[in-house]
Each structure stands twice: as C-alpha cells, then as structure tokens.
C-alpha cells in the first residue's frame, strides 16, 4: 500500500512542479529527498509497525518476483545488431510508450504536447511514461528506465491482488485463460485465437506487459477498491478521502480506471443511501480530477463518440451464442464466480454489484474505437469474478468431502492452464524476439539527441516504430495514425501536409513554416511509404544535415536546430 502511494505521489509531484521548475536531476533529487524526510518523520511519530510475513507469503512473493524478473529481463534487449523487443505486444505498444517517455526525458515536453501530432494536446494518459522519464533524468539508460519501474509496478500489482482477494484469486486473475487448450496445440497462443473467437487474452501478456498505463493504474484502482471494501465492511474504517485522492491521480495514469472506480463508488453510495460520507471521495475527483480530464482529453471528447450498441461484445464475430462465447473464453471461472457469489456474504454480494454492472455494460455497448478495448472494462469485472471464484475454490479445498476437494483442485488447474502456458511462451526470447531498431538507427538517434534542440520538430513517415520519436524524444508532424485515431484526434490536416511536403513545391515551403519543421527525414520508411518522396527537389532546396548509407536528414532551419556545421 505504501509503495503505491509513494510512487504515485512522487511522480505526480515531480510532474506538476516541472511546469514551474526545471525538469532536471537537481530538482528531482531535491524533491525525492524532501519526500523521504517527510515519510520518515511520519513513520517515526505514527510508530508504524510491520508484521513479519508468514513462510507461505514469502514463498508466494519470491515466486512472483522471480517470474516477473525473468519476464521483464527479456522484454527489451540490446544485441550487437540492434535493439530487440521480446514480445510482439512490446514491439507494437511500446513504440508509443518509448516515444512518450523520451519526449519528456530527451525532448523537454513542457507544457505537454502530443509528440506524434504537431500542434495537438497530449490526449493520452502518459504518467507511467513520465515515471520512466524521471529515471532518464537520473542517468539511467533507456532500457533500465523502462524495465525497472515495470518490474516494481508488477510486484505492487501482485501484492495488491493478494491483499484484496487472497492467494487463489491472484493466480486466477494473472493466469486467466479460457478453454483454448481443448482445440489449440501446445506452443500456440491458447488465450487468443480469432478463428475460435477466443478473445479474453491473458492479462499478463496483453495488459501487464505491453500496457504501461494499466500496469501503473490498476494497482491504484485495487488500493481504492480495498479502501472502499474496508469502509463497506465497517464505516468506521473511513479512508474515503484518501481513496478519492488516489482516484484523482488516475486521470493521467489510466483514465478508464478513474471512470470505473468512480462508477463502483457511486453505486455503493446509492446502495448505502447516504451522501455525506461520500463527499470526501467525490470532492477531490470533481475538483482535481475533472479539470485534468477536460484539459488533456477535451479535444478527444469533442472529436465524436465511438460508443455504439454491441450486444455480446465480440460474440457476433463467429455468431456465437453469448453464453457459449464467455464460457469458452473464461472457462471454469464463469460458473465458479457465480457459485462464489451465491456463497458470499451479504456485504460482498452488495459490493460486487457495481462490477457486475460494468460487465453488463461491456456486453451491451462498444465503448472504444478498437472493439477489443472493451477489455479495459471487463478486466475490472474480472477482478471481482476472480475473487468470487477464488472463494468458491477455497471453500471446496477446505471441504471434508474428498470428491469436492479433488474437483476444486481440477477446476483451479484448468482455470489457469491456458494462461500459464501463454505466460511460459513469454520466456522464449529467441523464438519471440522482434528487432525494434538497427544499430544504424540507434547511432542516428544518438547524434540527433546530442546535436539538435530538444524542441526540434521532424518530418517523417508515420510508421508506428519510427526511430525518430521513439529514440530521440523529438516531436514529429504525424505519427502512427492507428494510435491517433484511437485517441479521438483529428489528423487529416497533418496527413495531407506530410504528403504535400514530401512531394515538393512552393506549397511545401509554406507548410514547413506552418508546422515549424526543422528537419526532414528521408530513409527506408519514407521511401517505402506512399508519400512519393521527391528527393531531388528536397535536396535542391535544403542542405543535408546528416547522412548515412540508407538515410538522409535535411535541415530547414539551421539556426533553431543549434547545429554547428
């Protein structure tokens, strides 16, 4: 609990102070030192006592620390011939996260602007990436800055799952998987098979590893749920003010969790039929959280709604009956969660209602541009489903009837079989690795970082893994359109501008001025795109600033670039 509050609070403090103070090593260390002093004073005066963990708890923690360490050590690897991603979802998602991290760490991105779309506000929850940017400023290299906080957050996630639901529910949650093992071969991805309409992908492989905002945000949501549960059990355990502040922090960490946690809290308030105790929760959310939402996501909110009627979520892909769709995706957890609901006490059943409503909403409407992203809602429901299923299994294992004990063990094993298999696949680095960047791209990026203004703007192709935004932190006119579309951002003007500039002519010069472009990149990605690059015109009008065997970078504004020719 203290770890979550500490890492969240410290990251938030450093972020907001950087609007008025330099974002550099001196001020970061000063802030960390001040926070540590205050924390130590509180510990001394409050006389906080720590219980010695039990042996089984130590074994549990050591296992998960070993597993997380093993997984994360293989996610970003520097080899002699380039930088490699150890999993396809790292290659896919982390190009964005690396771009956002380096935009702060190398690109002086204050006030925050979208690094992948010139002139746009940063309409994406970036605080997990800002945490890594802090580590960059403290002289860690890029791999260390990305991997170390991921490992720490993974352990916080595991710890909060244990505190909130117990050991069995932690296994069920992190190693979730359906019935894919019945149809698919060992070695294939068992929790994701579009031909079978198996879409409830393992949480570690699809969310904890690639989605950095989720990895930082979900432990916070878990802590809030735990505080709400303690209050629901006994109103004397009133930490609703702290719960509200933690929920507010989710605005720039994982906005979906902010909405869903607030929904659960609101439904609890309606069940309790008391407003006064809940003012402490909702006041910081409204006063501090909503302004952040409207400031950073206002353009996305006004860009049109993606919400549409979609009963059964993805069941209609194969024309599956929705109950069959969920049974083969969830496996034994579905009936076990219903049994657990029946066995649960009145308080837990009441507390779980908000989560079941979230599940219903996710099964009636599509809430995201990308249909699979309804999992952002479903994961919160699955938390309580895992808790209830865990209670049912635990009761069965404690039964005096051998047949019930045996069945409980079988159902538990089957519930985590597919997920365990897919997590095991993550450890196969040599079979799964994908080259992120070549040594040439790494060298080019290093020269750009050292020899250009941090706020310089580059013109590039819109590949999701373009090395300029990812490795240098420099802003580009237009990045990967798939992400920008999912953020609700209008990129049509920038898309046309990029095409016009690369094709040359007087209109190109005007657009370069309009978007304040300092450098034009002509490399393999640009040449292989549909940009129709007019290399002759570009080189005739702008000097070559940097050249390698495959890439040329032209300078449009030498003075601003700060390059000493």
Written account of the structure:
The chain has 565 residues and is mainly α. The protein has a domain at 436-561: 3-Layer(aba) Sandwich (Rossmann fold). Helices cover 61% and strands 6% of the residues. It contains 26 helices and ten strands. The strands form three sheets. The protein has a five-stranded mixed beta sheet. β9 and β10 (552-555) form a beta hairpin. α6 (142-165) packs across α7 (167-174) and α11 (255-272) crosses α15 (346-362). The model has no long low-confidence stretch (mean pLDDT 94).
CA-atom Rg in angstroms: 25 Å
Helix content: 55-70%
> What is the overall silhouette?
globular
Termini separation comes to 53 Å
Architecture of the domain at 436-561 in CATH? 3-Layer(aba) Sandwich
In which order are the strands of the major sheet placed? 7-6-8-10-9
On the 0 to 100 scale, the average pLDDT is 94
Q: Tally the beta strands.
A: 10
As residue ranges, the low-confidence spans are none
Strand content: 5-15%
Structural class given helices, strands, pairing?
mainly alpha
CATH fold node name of the domain at 436-561: Rossmann fold
Number of helices: 26
Largest sheet: 5 strands, mixed
Output the CATH class name of the domain at 436-561.
Alpha Beta
Summarize the structure.
By secondary structure, this protein is mainly alpha-helical. It is 61% helix and 6% strand. It contains 26 helices and 10 strands.
């Amino acid at each position: 609990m203290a770890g979550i509050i500490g890492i969240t609070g410290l990251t938030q403090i450093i972020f907001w102070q950087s609007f008025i103070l330099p974002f550099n090593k001196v001020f970061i260390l000063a802030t960390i030192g001040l926070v540590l002093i205050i924390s130590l004073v509180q510990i001394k005066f409050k006389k906080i006592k720590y219980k010695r963990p039990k042996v089984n708890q130590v074994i549990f923690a050591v296992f998960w620390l070993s597993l997380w360490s093993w997984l994360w050590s293989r996610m970003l690897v520097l080899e002699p011939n380039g930088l490699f991603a150890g999993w396809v979802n790292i290659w896919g998602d982390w190009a964005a996260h690396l771009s956002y991290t380096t935009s702060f760490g190398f690109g002086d991105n204050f006030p925050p602007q979208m690094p992948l779309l010139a002139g746009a506000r940063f309409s994406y929850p970036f605080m997990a990436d800002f945490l890594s940017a802090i580590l960059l400023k403290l002289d860690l290299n890029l791999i260390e800055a990305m991997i170390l906080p991921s490992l720490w957050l993974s352990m916080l996630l595991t710890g909060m799952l244990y505190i909130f639901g117990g050991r069995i529910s932690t296994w069920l949650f992190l190693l979730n998987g359906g019935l894919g093992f019945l149809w698919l071969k060992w070695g294939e991805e068992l929790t994701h098979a579009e031909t079978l309409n198996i879409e409830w992908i393992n949480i570690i492989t699809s969310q904890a590893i690639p989605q950095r905002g989720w990895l930082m945000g979900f432990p916070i949501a878990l802590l809030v749920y735990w505080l709400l549960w303690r209050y629901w059990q006994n109103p004397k355990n009133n930490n609703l003010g702290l719960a509200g502040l933690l929920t507010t922090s989710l605005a720039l960490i994982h906005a979906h969790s902010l909405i869903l946690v607030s929904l659960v809290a609101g439904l609890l308030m309606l069940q309790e039929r008391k407003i006064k105790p809940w003012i402490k929760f909702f006041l910081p959310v409204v006063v501090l959280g909503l302004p952040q939402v409207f400031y950073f996501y206002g353009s996305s909110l006004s860009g049109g709604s993606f919400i549409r009627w979609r009963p059964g979520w993805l069941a209609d892909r194969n024309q599956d009956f929705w109950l069959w769709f969920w049974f083969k995706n969830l496996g034994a957890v579905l009936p076990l969660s219903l049994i657990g609901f029946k066995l649960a006490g009145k308080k837990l059943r009441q507390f779980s209602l908000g989560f079941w409503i979230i599940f219903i909403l996710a099964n009636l409407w599509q809430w995201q541009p990308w249909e699979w992203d309804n999992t952002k809602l479903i994961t919160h429901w699955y938390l309580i489903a895992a808790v209830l299923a865990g209670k049912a299994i635990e009761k069965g294992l404690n039964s005096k009837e051998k047949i019930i004990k045996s069945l409980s063990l079988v159902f538990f094993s089957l519930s985590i079989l597919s997920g365990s298999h897919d997590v095991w696949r993550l450890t196969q680095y040599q079979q799964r690795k994908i080259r992120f960047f070549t040594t040439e791209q790494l060298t080019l990026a290093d020269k750009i970082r050292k020899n250009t203004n941090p706020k310089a703007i580059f013109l590039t192709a819109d590949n999701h893994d373009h090395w300029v935004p990812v490795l240098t932190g420099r802003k580009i006119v237009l990045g990967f359109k798939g992400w920008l579309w999912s953020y609700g951002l209008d990129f049509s003007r920038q898309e046309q501008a990029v095409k016009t500039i690369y094709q040359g002519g007087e209109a190109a010069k005007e657009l370069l001025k309009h978007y304040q472009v300092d450098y034009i990149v002509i490399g393999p990605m640009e040449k292989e795109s549909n940009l129709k690059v007019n290399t002759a015109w570009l080189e005739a009008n702008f000097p070559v600033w940097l050249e390698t065997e495959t890439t040329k970078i032209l300078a449009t504004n030498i003075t601003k670039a700060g390059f000493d020719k």
